[in-house]
Amino acid sequence: MPIENIPEIYFNNKKEPQDIFVYDFKMTSDVVKSKVNLSMNMFSFLQVGKKQVHFANTSIAVNNKQSLLLKKGNWLWTELLDTDAIYYCKLVFFSEKKLTDFLSKYTNDVKPYQEEEPYFVIENDDYIAAFISSLSSSTFSKHSFSDALLALKFEEIMLYLLNKYGSSFEYYLHSLISKEVSPFKNVVESNVYSNLKLEEIAFLCNMSLSTFKRHFTSEYNEAPGKWIKNKRLQKAKELLEGGELKASDIYLDMGYNNLSNFSVAFKTKFGFSPTDITN
Predict the structure, then answer these.
(1) Domain total for the chain?
(2) What is the pLDDT of residues 170-218, one digit of tens each?
(3) Which top-level group of life is the source organism from (predicted)?
């Protein structure tokens, strides 16, 4: 899975990076999973379809009743069709300079708020729907006052969201200019019980797979594949012992592609099969 540098892949060959950039994204494939290097903070105004994003420490899924403000960084995201045979969203990217200018102009001089999650969920309403409808990359690219229009549209949505969400949104905006990076162990241990593969966790750590393996072995004194496998199997055993779940309910979440492989791995580790617990 290649890494997509966004929004750079949306720029025309002769187009210079902008402080604010709008892109209309459409997709007709059933599911697209992407490794994304997001170099600018981004609004994702989802109109048709569903979107799931894996971050270093958490994940979020939204439908077309919600939009996302995403912090720049290395993320994994999955875009899915809904009942319609299309996925459609409008993306608005903005630079840190533009954000800093806005905060200086309209907000209090607060200290950067350390937000645990690199996203902010926006509940769409009639005003936001109208705002989304007013966005079009073709309009802004052809208009002689496009830069001025974009600046006004950016301030419009930011001011509306400040009014809608108050201090929680203001603090989140300040957190976007923080340079802190999640520690290696925090990233690893936040994804132990996910179904992400090693290379996907390595990507979230901003490392190649080989570098990730070396770093992991140095930190944990054990190969990552074995360590994560044992952690997930132990978690699976605890879930099965709870009595509410069966192996068929959890094998995908534990990183296994089929029930048979999960059952074999489980029996190899514990000496008995998952069904011995649930029967």
Answers:
(1) 2
(2) 989 988 875 544 468 888 888 888 888 899 999 998 888 998 998 888 8
(3) Bacteria
